[in-house]
Amino acid sequence: MADRKPMFDGNEGEIILSSAAEALKKGHQSRKKELMASVTENYIEAEFFGIKKFNQLMEQYKDTCVGFRVYYGSQWEDHSKSKTQITAEGKGKKTSRLVIVPVDAYGRDLTSNNVMGLKDMAGGGAALANGPMCPRHCAPPVNEDEN
């Protein structure tokens, strides 16, 4: 691996203005009515992941983790109760979810069984998923006029 040049250094991504972030989010949020009317899919606006969970995940990989890859996933869930329940396929509604995977400097997902130095981790490593979701667990927007 010594002759292979790393592809990531931890500075990937782009910090954008909040107005640009809002424009990106609106594209998905405009589908809310369509998805809410769907018989087979729950509408998810966002998911929250706590910094302590990120730190816990990163601690497993020490300096091997230079960043994260965010995958889109889906699973069946029941949102009719006070607590979201993951269900068997065909029970509840299909729900889009995020899966956050640590990545090394060579672009490899650290959850993979073939990553050197992680052989002792059960299942090849860990990832972060199933964060509390919006709209169910989101605070209302801050009214700037109140400040």
List its traits.
alpha+beta; 7 strands; 147 residues; single chain
Explain this structure:
This protein has 147 residues and is α+β, with helices and mostly antiparallel strands. It has helices at residues 18-29, 32-37, 51-61; strands at residues 41-42, 46-47, 67-78, 85-86, 93-103, 128-129, 133-134. It is built from 3 helices and 7 strands; from the N terminus they run H-H-E-E-H-E-E-E-E-E. The strands form 2 sheets. Strands 1, 3, 4, 5 and 6 form a 5-stranded mixed sheet that branches. Strands 2-7 form a two-stranded antiparallel sheet. Strand 3 and strand 4 (85-86) form a beta hairpin. It is globular. The mean pLDDT is 81.
Distance between termini?
54 Å
Low-confidence runs of at least 5 consecutive residues: none
**Biggest sheet details:** 5 strands, mixed
General form: globular
Number of helices in the DSSP assignment? 3
- Please tell me how large the radius of gyration is: 18 Å
Q: What structural class results from the helix and strand content?
A: alpha+beta
- One letter per element, helices H and strands E, the order comes to HHEEHEEEEE
Average predicted local confidence, pLDDT: 81
Helicity range of the residues?
10-25%
Number of strands: 7
Q: Proportion of β residues? A: 15-25%
TL;DR?
The protein is an alpha+beta fold. The chain has three helices and seven strands; from the N terminus they run ααββαβββββ. The strands form two sheets. Strands 1, 3, 4, 5 and 6 form a five-stranded mixed beta sheet that branches.
Record the SSE blueprint.
Elements: H1 18-29, H2 32-37, E1 41-42, E2 46-47, H3 51-61, E3 67-78, E4 85-86, E5 93-103, E6 128-129, E7 133-134
Parallel strand pairs: 1-5
Antiparallel strand pairs: 2-7, 3-4, 3-5, 5-6
